[in-house]
Automatic annotation (TrEMBL):
Its main location: other. It comes from the Bacteria. GO terms for biological process: fatty acid beta-oxidation. This is Enoyl-CoA hydratase/isomerase family protein. The keyword Lyase applies. It comes from Alloalcanivorax marinus. Gene3D superfamilies: 1.10.1040.50, 2-enoyl-CoA Hydratase, Chain A, domain 1 (3.90.226.10), NAD(P)-binding Rossmann-like Domain (3.40.50.720). It catalyses: a (3S)-3-hydroxyacyl-CoA + NAD(+) = a 3-oxoacyl-CoA + NADH + H(+). The keyword Kinase does not apply. Belongs to the enoyl-CoA hydratase/isomerase family. One of its GO terms (molecular function) is enoyl-CoA hydratase activity.
Length: 694
């Protein structure tokens, strides 16, 4: 008998209960148990109807993803669902938590579904690069129509119980005790002699003759490079066009194709990596955490304002400090406008706008920060300015307050040394726009205390971010790799490529935009300031001047001035190649005696990507990132690296580290440039025939 699913009688209703923490995933034991308990319930003469329920935090949240790629063990989930659907006793699914993927598919095999008002249902398989493979693509369109089913399946987004009721996915909302509610509902159905409801017997309706072509068109841009959303559409189309059993066969074929696809392997890797980054090697699980109930942000500019919004969104009061009243007022007005725009799009209510604004308290005085538990500094990237801020924070903040810097490149250890409490100092590097981007690079200083790290990592999740712990070096993980790539992109242009060509190669790899469009978006002056700071602080390691410096000096700062590496038309973010910039590049080549040559797309790909892989390997060697997965999560959530390629280092494994190492060595020989000196780790792995992931 299964240990993870049990059967008992509650009065005249049989209860099948799944208990497989943490999320009742439908692993082999659960599938076996569900089948056995169903059979037991069917044989139990005292049971007039059956209820399926999950113990602990949720109804099954899907198939057990860890089983994918391993030899399948019966019973297969589609067969389990089919057996529930074939039951000649009424079965009611009682849903709480998140009935996702295979979990919802089991519920769709039941005759009726009741849900707690706090529950969510959904078919998120697409986010793992697969599709619902236990009949979800065949039953949901039959239940709610093809259009709505496409929206649920192709987005993969969870649906709240109340909306699921409106759609017809659930039949009844229960508040209070779910089991009691489900038993009462099942008894009523039995008493009323309610019919069995087998979704397979319904006809799926297509409301619009061009539904599938139009739907495909509507997602083409957003889902560029992904395979699963398009397979999901094909599967739903089969539900409309084929009899149920043939549709199931089609679903199975499409599922099988996706399961072995590199895209799905990468997306599943990201699913686990995203969770793994929270577990910091060497940091005990039970490390105590400091309480964070009141936060402050220094600087009400774009970054500071965005950072403050994260806390207000999570219901945490946040003070925001500026030295000049005008700047403070402007910053607060921008935050309000951002919220109002979100409300206009219907994503939050007017009431939420006011609630969040009420949590943001402007101040002009450092003395107001004496009671805060955490301060995040988001001022100008300049050591002298940081010194002034941290000296003030050290003076006013209470003992035990965490002092964080949002610096993207400066030395956190030096910043910590401006205080008498370096153990309380660490970096919290938000990515722009800070209220949107999910990544938070949390930078551990030499002296940062363990409980400070544990607190900040936990807080990252509380405010909806993916926090990755990194060590101190110039640019940390993300920007350190990025700067190497940007420099290589510029060098490729110096040699003969055009900015548009370089951008296209990286766009085609799956980046949301190329290196030059990206610097135009961020503002060309950002990189310029960093380079200038480096030229002052560390001239030996600073990059030589190039045509991009000249662009900035001519006032071409990027999108904000409608001119950067590319030109921009008013209100249009499309980069247009600029003759003025081409002339500047030609002048630069001439002045430096460079003979322009044809640069192939393959060379662009190799140089822009391999330089990052090599730098990533150095970062691992130095312990700046603990694991390859930390680097990958940073690139996915901070820079839009395509999820379906799994991250820069996961992608490198798919190319083969020997191939990359050979090229890196060749570039090193040809250029003598230190950046191409092969990382010892890369060399070792390549020689052993291994990848970053073994
Ligand atoms: C699926 O269902 C395919 C089907 O269509 C069937 C196909 C059958 C085909 C057969 C053909 C013959 N599996 O996120 P958290 C772990 S695909 C294994 O921190 P939260 C997670 O790794 C699945 N493990 O919690 C973590 O482990 P750790 C569709 C899973 O409260 C722990 O649980 N379903 C797992 O923030 C806690 O997770 C999904 O995609 C799973 N399915 O969020 C749902 N789900 O502690 C994926 C979680 O060791 N899951 N874990 O780090 C989620 O979205 C979130 O985990 C929840 C909970 C919202 C459920």
């Amino acid at each position: 008998m299964s240990e993870v699913v049990s059967y008992r009688l509650e009065g005249d209703i049989g209860v099948i209960s799944v208990n497989y923490p943490p999320v009742n995933a439908l692993g082999q034991g659960v599938r076996q148990g569900l089948t056995e308990c169903l059979r037991q319930g069917l044989q139990d003469d005292q049971a007039k109807a059956l209820v399926v329920i999950g113990e602990g935090r949720t109804f099954p949240a899907g198939a057990d993803i860890r089983e994918f790629g391993k030899p399948p063990q019966g019973p297969a989930l589609p067969d389990v669902v089919a057996e529930y659907e074939a039951s000649d006793k009424l079965v009611v699914a009682a849903i709480h938590g998140t009935a996702l993927g295979g979990g919802l598919e089991v519920a769709l095999g039941c005759d009726y579904r009741v849900a707690l008002d706090s529950a969510k249902v959904g078919l998120p398989e697409v986010k793992l690069g697969i599709l619902p493979g236990a009949g979800g693509t065949q039953r949901l369109p039959r239940l709610i129509g093809a259009q709505k089913a496409l929206e649920v399946i192709v987005s993969g987004n969870p649906v709240k119980a109340k909306d699921a009721l409106a759609l017809g996915i659930v039949d009844e909302i229960v508040s209070g005790d779910l089991l009691e509610g489900a038993l009462a509902y099942a008894r009523k159905l039995a008493a009323d002699n309610a019919p069995l409801r087998r979704i397979r017997d319904l006809q799926a309706k297509k409301e619009d003759p061009d539904l599938f072509t139009n739907f495909e068109k509507s997602i083409a841009r957003k889902q560029r490079g992904f395979k699963a959303p398009f397979h999901c559409i094909k599967a739903v189309q089969a539900a409309v066009e084929l009899p149920f059993d043939e549709g199931m066969k089609r679903e199975r074929e499409l599922f099988a194709e996706l399961l072995v696809s590199p895209e799905s392997r990468a997306q599943r890797h990201v699913f686990f990596a995203e969770r793994e980054v929270a577990k910091v090697p060497g940091l005990a699980k039970d490390t105590p955490k400091r309480e964070i109930n009141q936060v402050a942000v220094i600087g009400a500019g774009t970054m500071g304002g965005g950072i403050a919004m994260n806390f207000a969104n999570a219901g945490i009061p946040v003070k925001i400090l500026e030295v000049k009243e005008e700047a403070l007022e402007k910053g607060i007005a921008v935050i309000r406008k951002n919220y109002e725009n979100t409300a206009k799009k219907g994503r939050i209510t007017e009431q939420q706008v006011e609630q969040r604004m009420a949590l943001i308290q402007p101040t002009l005085s450092y003395d107001d920060l004496s009671d805060v538990d955490l301060v995040i500094e988001a001022v100008f990237e300049n050591m002298d300015v940081k010194k002034a801020v941290f000296s003030e924070l050290d003076r006013v903040c209470k003992k035990g307050a965490i002092l964080a810097t949002n610096t993207s490149t400066l030395d956190v250890n030096r910043i910590a040394a401006f205080t008498q409490r370096p153990e309380d100092v660490m970096g919290m590097h938000f990515f722009s726009p800070a209220n949107v981007m999910k990544l938070l690079e949390n930078v551990r200083g030499e002296k940062t205390a363990d409980d400070v790290i544990a607190t900040v990592m936990d807080l990252s999740r509380r405010i909806g971010k993916v926090g990755v712990l990194v060590g101190v070096c110039h640019g940390f993980v993300g920007n350190r790799m990025l700067h190497k790539r940007q420099a290589e992109a510029v060098q490729l242009v110096n040699e003969g490529a055009s900015p548009a060509q370089v951008d296209k190669v990286l766009f085609d790899l799956g980046f949301p935009m190329g290196p030059f469009a990206m610097s135009d978006l961020a503002g060309m002056d950002v990189g310029y300031r960093i380079r200038e700071e480096l030229r002052k602080e560390d001239p030996d390691n600073a990059p030589p001047r190039n045509w991009t410096d000249e662009l900035v000096e001519q006032g071409r700062l990027g999108q904000k001035t409608q001119a950067g590496v590319f030109d921009y038309k008013d209100g249009d973010r499309t980069p247009v190649p600029s003759e003025q910039v081409d002339a500047l590049i030609a002048k630069f080549r001439e002045e430096n005696g460079i003979q322009s040559r044809e640069v192939s797309d393959q060379e662009i790909l190799e140089r822009c990507m391999y330089v990052m892989v090599n730098e990533g390997a150095k970062i691992l060697e130095e312990g700046i990132a603990a694991r390859p997965l930390d680097v990958d999560v940073i690139w996915i959530y901070g820079y839009g690296f395509p999820v379906y390629r799994g991250g820069v280092l996961f992608w490198a494994d798919s190319v083969g580290l020997k191939t990359i190492y050979d090229k890196v060595s060749q570039f090193h020989k040809e250029t003598g440039n230190d950046v191409w000196k092969p990382a010892a780790l890369l060399e070792k792995l390549a020689n052993e025939g291994k990848g970053f992931y073994g």
